[in-house]
Amino acid sequence: GAQWVAKKFSTDNFTKIILFVIWFTYFPILSDLRMGQYNLISSLFLFVSLMGIIGKKPLLSALSWLISLLYKPLALLNGFYFFKTKNKIALWGFMIIFVVFTAGYLGYYNLYYPQAISDFLKLVLLSGDRSGWQIHYPDNFSVNAFLGELFYDSHRLLFSFVSKLYPLILIGIFLVISYKIQFKGEVKTDLYYSLYAFSTLMMLHKEVWESWLSAWLIVLVVLIILASRRKEKIFLILNSILLGTPTLFYFYEVKKTKVWLTLLIAEKVIPQILIYSYLVYLMFAIIREQKDNENFALYSIFPARK
Question: Model's pTM, two decimal places?
């Protein structure tokens, strides 16, 4: 699949070798398989969905996205793309498979177990006391966990405020980008937005285990293929190395100090933040370019009078 995408964008042979090495040495894949998780297979079906976008096959793109959600709803926010591109198969499939089925399933069990709906919402929203999993836990590589290492012990109120604020900021930016961006058949725009939407959910989630990092592999591979400048490729490859190598858990086990725990978590969180920031920058750059093109077209139709 990656080779087909690389060929479509005329990727040079050296970059193909780099992609091959990254793909087959990416350590979080082992964690995902060892733990019996679905992050990798869910992201692989999203990758097939992206191939459908590249090949102009909306049916393949929609069905692959729906299958990805069935394994694990990591690509849930990609629904905004299918909504804006008016992909009826994706939208009706989502409504039938997820909304109607989930409502019916919960409604049925709620008749016999009155807490079914509330327990479902608690599980999905990670409500209740989750501090043991979200704070000072050496296998949690979420942004929230990193903030916990920085502020939880010394500035508890500041941590509580920032922990609630940053998801709101990310959601606000996502909604603005999703509203302003236009899809006019430019494949790179569609791909960049799809990767951005996919990454947003991982940045929002407060319990990102090492197995989750396998989902970033798809993002990194496609971004490296699409990158046109050498500096961009180097930036992405370096972050791929940081995310793809084993964690610093061994050193933390040898010497269980706060410094090592912070380094352990930071080593995986900072690359995620950098890649996501890169995607946000690309989104606003695309929106600005689309706006400039609209203004130029308008000026061409109605030139300024002397």
Answer: 0.91
